[in-house]
Protein 1
Amino acid sequence: MSTFDPAAILSAWLAGLAGFLTDVRALFWWPTLVTAALGALVLIAVNARGKPAAGAGEKKPLRAFLRELPMDITCYLGYTLTQVLLAKALFWATVGGVSLVFLIGGHPTGPAAAPAFSEQLAVAALAFVLSDFCLYWSHRLFHVAGPLWWFHSLHHQPSVLTPITAFRFWPPEAACHFAAFSFGEGVAFGIANLGFGANITPATYLGVNVFLIVWYLAFSHLRHSHVALYYPRWLSFVLVSPHMHQAHHSVNPQQYQSNYGTALAVWDWMFGSLYIPGKEERFRFGITRG
């Protein structure tokens, strides 16, 4: 029977924090910050011709940022600690996704073969898509269920957005989103085992998804920022642009009850929650208080 080891947990957490810029699995792996900074500079230069920035309704953004910073940092630390504390539970959430597929579709038959590169790529893509699908529903649930909105409203309170805002969650909510993500990956691995006969072992669950890395590099940090990066309209039906996610943080309830997708907008399109703002549209962030 495994035992709870506070020293090992603390050591793993501190090691993760120490590598928050250098570890490819880290939330702020340095290449993702570089691409975000370069993208922001380009967009600011392009939009410098009189267009207001997103969140322009905040009169003193620096003061607002400093006001929110202690809570943002505390939530970031709690977010990373929750990941470490729940590592084993999230592993079993992934196994649960695999088991559900086997329960419905039966166990793989015949010898398992080592997956070819093309199959590995297909599995990674499927894991990315299905984990994003599960995150869409866990996110939407925290908006539409009153008691859960109390938790999630913390994420929507700031009148300024920064990359750290992405981790502004109470630990119980973060745990739900982690579990949803892990379960979606498990379903993908189960389907891969049935479809390809692929030799996907439990160790596979600990790997790094190349599609997730690409998404982190592709301006993911600008989702929570004041840089209004928008995509062509046709692409906005597939991917959630930072501009679309800024609408999700609008003080307007009709806007923040839309665009629940993390990376893929196709779920919002399919389930009636898509909102594509106009190019010139800008937002005030936060929650309207009576």
Protein 2
Amino acid sequence: MDDIDLLVLRQLRDWRRDGRHALLATVTRTWGSSPRPLGSIMALRDDGAVVGSVSGGCIEDDLIDRYTAINRPDRPGPAFPAGAPERVKYGITADEAHRFGLPCGGTLELVLEFDPDPGALGDLVGSLEAGRLMHRNLRLADGMVSLEVAGGPSDLIFDDAHLVNTFGPQYRMLLIGAGQLTEYLATMAQFCGFAVTVCDPREEYRAGWTLPGVTLSTDMPDDVVTAFRPDRRSCVVALTHDPKLDDLALLEALHTEAFYVGAIGSRRNNAQRHQRLITHFGETEQSLAGLRGPIGIYIGSKTPPEIAVSVMAEILAVKNGAPLPRDMDVGRAKDRLAISANDPGGPVCFVAP
């Protein structure tokens, strides 16, 4: 499943290439709570078709009512104005916030672009599909757009003259091992917008693989990691429990910019992995600090789908820069459970020291 921004931009490009009127809405400012983060986009076609989101739905409904002919017999054609982009605000008053489904105190500002140039949209979509990180610079005075390859991720830039939104290629996930847990994790990752590659040289595991939309590799995992070239929008997860497959691949991944590198396994397996990498490959505890394990957040998971939820939640937290409480770390939580089990009179407590 493609990244939502790419889906929006690709659909908008197709609408404009077909000669349809359409607008692009971008969340540029928020005050208080807001349903969608800065830079979120949606596209609206002249007949009311929508892709993407800027709110929970009420603001989309208002934009449909304002700018299309849906259920408006007094409006014979598209209501899209021509010319420069417009700014609109929602949630100025408590009544308006309630009407548009915004959280208490929430205010949202959008920039609306009318009939964006299909050529520029095509160039942007092509760059994203080629794996490039792109800045899209909109000149607010006249709607002119320029594109530039970005050197790295960037926050939205918005002032009186320009709106610069950074669009990146899909986040990527490389999973080592094609077992049952991998299938659940790959499914969740696809729904979260990741492009997923699964690597397993073992024919007996690959033979049962049925999940569509995933790139399946038969090469040795460390070679796949090298070819994968993990960057800051990539994560690598080892799921085989087999040191012959996991260890070298993890070593390769640790020396890349991958935002997340981790391996499944128990606390004992994790400690043994660290010891092997230190003893046989010259690593140190400091150089292994970025290796996550046991992976996931502690939710008491037992079955493969529950474990996949746990792992996916941790990956998303790291991707989004959300701090995870120490008491949700799998190893630390299980240590506390073990202590509690050995002291039946003591409470089960997960408060970090």
Protein 3
Amino acid sequence: MNKKIYVLIIISLLLTGCSNFNTKTNNQSANPEPISKSSFILDTIVTIQIYDSQDEAILNNAIELIKEYDLIFSRTNEKSELYRLNNGSLPNEGLGYTISDELRHIMSLGIKYGELSNGYFDLTIAPILSLWDFKAENPVLPDEAELNKVIPLVDYRNMSLENNTLTFNQEGMRVDLGGIAKGYIADRIKDYLLEQGVESAMINLGGNVLCVGNKPDGSPFNIGIQMPYADRNETIAAMEISDMSVVSSGIYERYVTIDGKSYHHILDPYTGYPIDNSLISVSIISPYSVDGDGLSTTTFALGLEKGMDLVESIPNTHAIFITDDYKLHYTKGFKEAIKIIE
């Protein structure tokens, strides 16, 4: 699974992983140290910390739950439901494939963001993604002819979802959930923790940071946004967050340099190339992490003005846009709703 700026979480100690938010807590001596568990899942380091329980079984079960979702949403795991959908091996009746409730739910959310973004967020971008290799030691640009061949396959409007039946209206269409899956999973992990009586926790799925409640002393968590292109410990902004999600998308998290030019991983589904505007990153603060996931990609693609307009139209949702001159742009009402830490 791809995307989302990796985050560095500092909660009285530095966690391992590819990340670049940082969070700090000042634990009171009366409170025990939080229990924590990390694992490499979703193609990243995921970490769960619980502050108001010492039950290790809850942590273990939460990690196992993430693995279960990976077996549904992964595009590259040959055992996953999505992989089997993309390769035509799911049960089908005629042209339609029967999918699980979980896959149906997340895809319906992805379609919503396709509509909000006028197609710049597109679940069917997998054919384009498959032509880019952002991990290659010697990266090359996609073959132009191959790119032009697959661009017509990328259009979520040529896919229909009715109940649990998914139909592709063009042969060769495939789905990628990397722009939304981690947020969706983070929300499900929060649901599980609440069911277990946990009211103070931090979920970090390789950059999607979701705060469950507050710290045990009732104070909010402190979340820092990484300075673009700087060391992961250096922040450009910090804020107090209670029971909210923080998700970022940016051009410096995953990119390749070819013939002296950088190409980042946030691709334009209409051209097949990285989106080129004045933005370096977008950070979304929202009640649900899945919305932070979808909105961070969507607003980055829309650009500063249209992206800010979209976020400002959504209740209880805020954003920080960073432009290529390193200026921070806050949506209306941000500073009244969220305390910025000097």
